[in-house]
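Re: folding output
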Amino acid sequence: MNELFMDFLTILLPSFFFFYMAVTLLHRNIKSMLNRIAALLMLAFQFYFLGEYIKTSLLPQYQMQIVLYGNSPMLLLVICCLVHLSVLIGNPATSAFKRFLPFIYAAPYTLWLGFLITKDHRVLYNAEVTDGRSPLDPQFLLITVLFIAGYILLSVIILAVSWFRVKEIKHRQVLRSLLLSLFLLFAWFVLVTFLLQSKVLTSRNAMILFFIGYLLWAVTLRHLVGKYDIMPDYRKLFHILFKSAPTAILLLDQKGDVKEMNPRAKQWLEGIPVHHIMSYFQFENNMPVVDMLALVQQENEVQWEAQLHNPKKGDLDLIMGLELIEETDEKLYVMHLTDVTSLKVAERKLLKSEQNYKYLAHHDSLTDLYNRAALHELLLEKIERRESFALILIDLDNFKPINDRYGHFVGDLYLKHIALMLENCSQPDDKIGRIGGDEFVWIISSMDDNSELDRIVDHRLSLLQKTPFTYKGIEIPISFSAGVSQFPRDATDITTLMKNADEAMYTMKRARKTGISSLAD
């Protein structure tokens, strides 16, 4: 079997195994720094041994360039990544070593560049040496060997420190296995180097043995990644997040019963029996829990508003998210509850403030009747709908003397009494408002029979005269003048309707009569 085929079997073909391991590491978790550095180490191995194959079997005339510009930096990258991996695997015990990583990478490459700049390349690598000795410059070879051995030993020390400090059993198993593999790799490297320097092995055979040792170590490293999952313990992280989450989290079974809850949920649900927890929730649209779970199976995730009524802890307004977990042996549902009580309180206050503002904008502040602006809007709506109605304008007689004699406080009570009497006389569809100091407007649905309308209005307004205002034993009679105008009989716009009612009202006032009048009269 010729040497070219032997090199193919022993170096080139197995080197692609490094590429396979690099790809699987990245595929496993490309976001993990540990996996990325391990993959970089595998690729550096591949390119190093690929360069050896090309140098030895394909392009021996370029072996100096391949060694100095290809294999050397790749070998340095391998040992730098080895130290970096040891620091990452030993974390958090080795977190202090991270500050030295830039120096770990810079030191060997600085010396490598220094040799390339200061020495002739033919001196650094003598291609004429074919007697089994290393063609590298003795000083360059010595420093390279020292760096390789030193970095392997440094990795062993870092892992040993981590193994001594770490208490978690799983982590200690990983560190112990890596320590053992590195000791064996270091021993193998020393043994092959000794045999090479003793001329027991040729450079080519030593390279094959180096390759076998590194390959076995890389396989061991990849095995540890797969077996012990040298990555963040996501189950542990999830458990930590579950316990420390600021929101309440409940785990439900298919029946809606609570199987597990985090501390925040236990705090909110304190004093409530576990098997009765869901009955203390009031969900949007009053949907039962079982129906919500069925809906989640169709949409995978849903969100509702909810309220929690806990007699011991008070009421909470919540936003509830419900999600189905399908990666378990049984169907489970995660319920996330976010406290939005303060937001809801602010929302209710804002809504109430808005309602108060609208109320004040449309009502008289003294009597709580409609004001002029509100009456104007109501009349416009009725006119647009072509709805028949009667507008009654009421003006109190002798109101100024009441203010002058008894004071404005009594005058205000007098106006409130009038407003209350008008409301008592009105029907649910009627609209009553105050448009001035002692002027009121009463809007009632009109009738085809005008005489019937006049009779009804006279009857209702007569109640004002029958119920005088009394204050501290003082009885003040109620006297008023009123005018009526009908839509659309008398006018089809607000201005004319008000003008007609006003003229009819002053007709009664000039006649010094208490009652109601219309232009038709």
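--- second protein (sequence, then structure) ---
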Amino acid sequence: MAHAPGMHSLEFKLPDLGEGLTEAEIVRWLVEVGDLVAIDQPVVEVETAKAMVEVPCPYGGVVTARFGEEGTELPVGAPLITVAVGEKPAAGTGGTGTEGSGNVLVGYGTSEAPARRRRVRQERPLSGASATGGQSGAGAANGRAAATAAPVNAQATGAAAAVDGQSGGLATEDGPVPVISPLVRRLARQNGLDLRELTGSGPDGLILRADVEYALRAAGQGATAAPAAEPHPRVPQAPSPVPASASPATAVPAEIRTPLKGIRGAVADKLARSRREIPDATCWVDADATELMRARTAMNAAGGPKISLLALLARICTAALARFPELNSTVDAEAREVVRFGHVHLGFAAQTDRGLVVPVVRDAHARDAESLTAEFARLTEAGRTGTLTPGELTGGTFTLNNYGVFGVDGSTPIINHPEAAMLGVGRIVPKPWVHEGELAVRQVVQLSLTFDHRVCDGGVAGGFLRYVADCVEQPAVLLRTL
């Protein structure tokens, strides 16, 4: 590859993702071949089994090649891009200089990340060659790591001249389509849907998930069955009328196979491992939550930030774990030891468009109800938008599962491996209840505790659950631990 005098190329590889993650899928390229990038500028958005994150490049210069199409799954250590940088450092200097920032950590970025530059797209020749590093869809038939892009032979001086003389028209034509979240963009890409053919129903034409789903229904089987190597099909904005003679059997496939990969695959592996390794047991109890609901109403009437019910349940959990620390532990099977934690990193189950995630509230035992409410809200929003980092999804020591939001009373959940227990909370509904010797209508909730029988016996588990129920029924019990 030819470079301008004093220029040389550096190859940036997919960094070690940590947390046992060995591969990632390219969701969206943030730079084009010929773009000028700054040190620590995000260049690609990838999805791992843990989260969707932007990967910053530790080098500054001109992008000369990209490796992999959007949708390609790359292993750690595979090339991502090559960057033409300034003068090559002298031997013995260690090659650091000012070319790069050093470490790259997915999900956390690099140190001292500068403000992102505006992306500048270089005009592509009309003859259309696949040498631009993966712009043609023909190279990604199977979306695996074998799909690579040929480097572009372009001198740095020529790339700089193209940047200076860039026309604004292409930026409008080829720029990103406004979409409410990467999940919606991915849904469209997986079904071969060209987002430029859609008119968003959101503010300022923002494309919502409902818009994509409507277009997919309108396109019918023809759009979803298009080969992966074909260009994006043109999708009508209004549904086409279905012929009266169409047979319902032709519109329903015999079976649908969905690969267990990404977050769905990670969840499947973890649940299966929990069932294989943990001898779990479950106990449950009904509790009168009327006083807890009244206490929350009184708190919120006093002014200040509103306190969520989940935060109060979390506060009860941490108090119960202080009394029964056996449940805040894990089993080291190789050492045949029970490891008890001195801190409580509280996970909570959250259902998102990407599937089930369990964000973790660090040091929940040291937080009050206001702090817990704020952290639950922050992590829930991050889960909804797919921006949770790997560090926010790992390291939990105990999980709180509020399945009552689905309108069910009880459950026997699977323990979040490698933790030792999970508290489940059903819906709170009016039921007949004997209160102070008389039948009354009270707000009743079912509580369940699933625990690893290796860390404790039924007496500890029952004592924990009974204490939680007592705090739900009489919140003043918590005052003993404040």
